[in-house]
Amino acid sequence: MVVATQINPIHVEKNQEMTIPTIDLTGDESKVSKLIVKACEEYGFFKVINHGVDYHIIKTIENESFEFFNKPLVEKQRAELAKPFGYGNKNIGLSGDTGELEYLLLQANQDFIDNTSMLISNDPSSFSCRVNSYVKAVKGVACNILELMAKGIGGVPHSVFTTLLTEDDSDLLLRLNHYPCVTHPFQHDANPIGFGEHSDPQILTLLASNGVPGLQVSLGDSRQWLPVTPDPRAFFVIVGDLLKAMTNGRFISVRHRAMANTSTTESRLSMVFFGGPPPHATITCPPKLVKRNTPLVYKPFTWAEYKSHTYAHRLGEARLDHFKLS
Ligand SMILES: O=C(O)CCC(=O)C(=O)O
Ligand SMILES: [Fe+2]
């Protein structure tokens, strides 16, 4: 069943009330597949409910994250690893972007989590067990969505996107973002930024957050920023640049940002799973999806090439444009 799925046309008038598509994953499979494709084409962003991940698993990671971020700074800095991984504070990425947040960026594979958990937690075996269960669960949802997407598009194997996330060397990441309350220094700044405007470079992102608002998505031709109402039990799904390239530009890799947390009482936490392919996977649009009247938009590239390109550029740049065929 699909709940409150009021998907508007792409064109967004100023001040028009907009609704983020909400898709119930327990609904009729062929309808759900079509709605997912429609949401990806029109918004590149939607919310999934009844996704099968127990709220207890999400809440457990939230608690583990707060336990880490509540530690004194010197202890958190012990988890600074070779860039870009580990603990970071205000500096995002490698190109000078900054924001009002701190974060932990982890490779979402068991070895990495097991090996770094002693730098993060006072109870490393419980931390790695909990993070590994979360990653397994959220990866399952991502693969389910990618398979439904392929079914909804039609004409391609159902596994065309999913297999990219299920290889031994698939590049999966978990980013825990903590936005502390920062009301004081921003009395004169109406729009303090937590995490600046960007599109995610990978295939698909699944974002969970606690109940504190902050995420905004840029929708429609007018590029109006729409605040996303938090829903701690749901996942927000974000189409990444690679999926845009693999669908020949048919799907939108939505630009989004997080505002600094101006709540006076509660910290904001987001737990973000990024599904990326193996480094040497070639990213190109399957020939069946290249229509005669829409020639190939992007030249083929590997994920390793795209990743080093994104690291070398600012967050807000339209990084995929570099791979456009002219
Ligand atoms: O924290 C958020 O809501 C957004 C974070 C984000 O976009 C990211 O980590 O890529
Ligand atoms: Fe993002």
From TrEMBL:
It comes from the Eukaryota. Signal peptide: none annotated. Residues 169-277 form the Fe2OG dioxygenase domain. InterPro entries: DIOX_N (IPR026992), IPNS-like_FE2OG_OXY (IPR044861), IPNS-like_sf (IPR027443), Iron_ascorbate_oxido_reductase (IPR050231), Oxoglu/Fe-dep_dioxygenase_dom (IPR005123). Keywords: Iron, Metal-binding, Oxidoreductase. SUPFAM superfamilies: Clavaminate synthase-like. GO terms for molecular function: metal ion binding; oxidoreductase activity, acting on paired donors, with incorporation or reduction of molecular oxygen. Gene3D superfamilies: B-lactam Antibiotic, Isopenicillin N Synthase, Chain. It holds the Pfam family DIOX_N. Belongs to the iron/ascorbate-dependent oxidoreductase family. This is Gibberellin 2-oxidase 4. It comes from Artemisia annua. The lineage of its organism: Eukaryota, Viridiplantae, Streptophyta, Embryophyta, Tracheophyta.
